[in-house]
């Protein structure tokens, strides 16, 4: 899985701590997701989608063989 | 299977280490004086206590530093707290070891008293350090360290990512602790046979710890299926 989280965060002028506060998670979790070391839960993914006003599949991109 | 192979590998490692030390007489060849060993442990205990004290005050200062970039400050706090925890844990073990070795090998009184002072300092800074997260993250509802259900409450206030990091770390620590204890069991067994100085209490203690910790782990996961 790849993620555009870092790119979207920069586009919205948010740092990791601010994004973490808005998504009600820790900064460590934002950092883990950005480094693609952890796949977030559906609830967290949905919160990101709401913050950036983007569909989940535009933030988290899966390869065909992963699905 | 992988775990069993790893245990066998550690057992073989333990046997080779013990055999080499016992039968090549390395200890006598390098003329190892127990005073040097005691002093080395003592110096390491001093270093870790000093690192704990410096780390503690550095971290307290950072919590108030508003000029630093927010993300960098959060990252710095997290890493510094991890380093501090490592230093305080190490200082407790090393100062206790120095004290024990000092008493057993009849070191001078100043050595034993200094080790005791180091141990008390380590213990105090361990308590101060355990209270730091509440000061570093006042917005989070972190449990008190004295809370009887501290572990449960800490897991409850942690999010998925933090639990993922803790799980990885704890599992690696559990696996390596089991393997290293098994290796120690083999070393003690070979040492006992080779020197005639039976380490039965140590072997029984290590065996009991291995049995209890493995049973605790397996029993805690078996009912979750």
Automatic annotation (TrEMBL), chain A:
**Mind telling me which CDD domains this protein's record contains?**
HTH_XRE (cd00093)
Q: What keywords sit in the KW lines? A: DNA-binding
Q: Which GO terms describe its molecular function?
A: DNA binding
Which Pfam families does the UniProt entry name for this protein?
HTH_3 (PF01381)
Ranges of residues in domain HTH cro/C1-type: 5-59
Has keyword Protein biosynthesis? no
Please give the name of this protein: Helix-turn-helix transcriptional regulator
From TrEMBL, chain B:
Pfam families for the chain? DUF3169
Entry keyword annotation includes Transmembrane helix: yes
Keyword Membrane present in the record's keywords: the answer is yes
- What keywords would UniProt list here? Membrane, Transmembrane, Transmembrane helix
User: So which domain of life are we looking at?
Assistant: Bacteria
Looking at the UniProt entry, the stretches that span the membrane are 7-24, 36-59, 80-103, 109-128, 173-194, 200-219
Protein name per Swiss-Prot or TrEMBL: DUF3169 family protein
């Amino acid at each position: 899985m790849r993620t555009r989280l870092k790119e979207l965060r920069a586009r919205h002028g948010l740092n990791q701590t601010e994004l973490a506060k808005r998504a009600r998670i820790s900064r460590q979790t934002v950092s883990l997701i950005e480094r693609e070391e952890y796949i977030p839960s559906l609830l967290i993914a949905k919160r990101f989608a709401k913050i950036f006003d983007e569909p989940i599949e535009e933030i988290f991109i899966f390869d065909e063989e992963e699905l | 299977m992988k775990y069993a192979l790893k245990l066998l590998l550690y057992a073989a490692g333990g046997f080779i280490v013990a055999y080499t030390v016992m039968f090549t007489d390395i200890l006598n060849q390098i003329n190892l004086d127990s005073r040097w060993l005691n002093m080395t442990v003592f110096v390491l205990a001093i270093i870790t206590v000093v690192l704990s004290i410096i780390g503690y005050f550095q971290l307290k200062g950072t919590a108030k530093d508003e000029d630093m970039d927010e993300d960098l400050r959060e990252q710095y706090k997290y890493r510094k707290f991890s380093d501090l925890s490592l230093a305080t844990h190490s200082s407790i073990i090393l100062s206790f070891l120095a004290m024990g070795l000092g008493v057993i090998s009849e070191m001078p009184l100043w050595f034993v008293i200094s080790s005791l002072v180091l141990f008390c300092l380590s213990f105090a800074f361990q308590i101060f350090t355990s209270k730091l997260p509440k000061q570093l993250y006042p917005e989070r509802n972190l449990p008190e360290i004295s809370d009887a259900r501290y572990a449960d409450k800490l897991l409850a206030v942690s999010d998925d990512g933090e639990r993922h990091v803790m799980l990885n770390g704890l599992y690696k620590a559990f696996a390596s602790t089991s393997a290293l204890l098994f290796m120690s069991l083999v070393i003690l067994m070979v040492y006992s046979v080779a020197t005639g100085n039976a380490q039965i209490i140590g072997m029984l203690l290590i065996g009991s710890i291995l049995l209890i910790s493995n049973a605790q782990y397996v029993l805690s996961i078996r009912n979750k299926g």
